[in-house]
Amino acid sequence: TKTADEFTKYIHAKMTFLKWAPIVYTTANTGANIQRLLNTIYDVWLERNKIVDDKALQKMLEKMLKKMRPVQARGPERAHIRSISQERANPPIFRIFLKRGKGLHFSYLRFIENQLRENFGFIGSPIVLRVED
């Protein structure tokens, strides 16, 4: 029989785009981990409704830009990010404002999403990024 760790590795290998989603194993026969599942659902709800302060987002942006400069999606000019702000919660939507450039490469958008998760959590919640050229 496979262990929970083996199943988790299998799930993450098949659904790499959902690594941010928590996995809770339960048993219908005994009801094992039902309370853990309910607690996880509540935690995800809290994360999904989280609002991040603009100052904290700007601080994250400054650190992020020092780590890796933006990669442009199209056009000859490298994109320059002016600011980032949270538009709304449930699901969290962030707007990225560019000073110049024509969009951001999908890999850089994934980098931004990973930085948002690393800095602010959003466990179990999708993050929507909108870019304003």
Keywords, please?
133 residues; alpha+beta; three-stranded mixed β-sheet; 4 helices
Structural features, described:
- There is one protein chain.
- With 133 residues, this protein is of the alpha+beta class.
- The protein is built from four helices and five strands, in the order αααββββαβ.
- The strands form two sheets. The chain has a three-stranded mixed sheet. Strands 1-4 form a two-stranded antiparallel sheet.
- It is elongated, with a radius of gyration of 18 Å.
- It starts with a helix and ends with a strand.
- 11% of the residues are buried.
- The model has no long low-confidence stretch (mean pLDDT 91).
Mean pLDDT figure: 91
> Which percent band covers the strand fraction?
15-25%
- Please compute the radius of gyration using only Cα atoms: 18 Å
What is the terminal separation in angstroms?
52 Å
- Sheet with the most strands: spatial strand order: 2-3-5
Relative helix content: 40-55%
- How many strands, what sense, and barrel or not for the largest sheet? 3 strands, mixed
In total, the number of strands is 5
Q: Which runs of at least 5 residues are low in confidence (pLDDT < 50)?
A: none
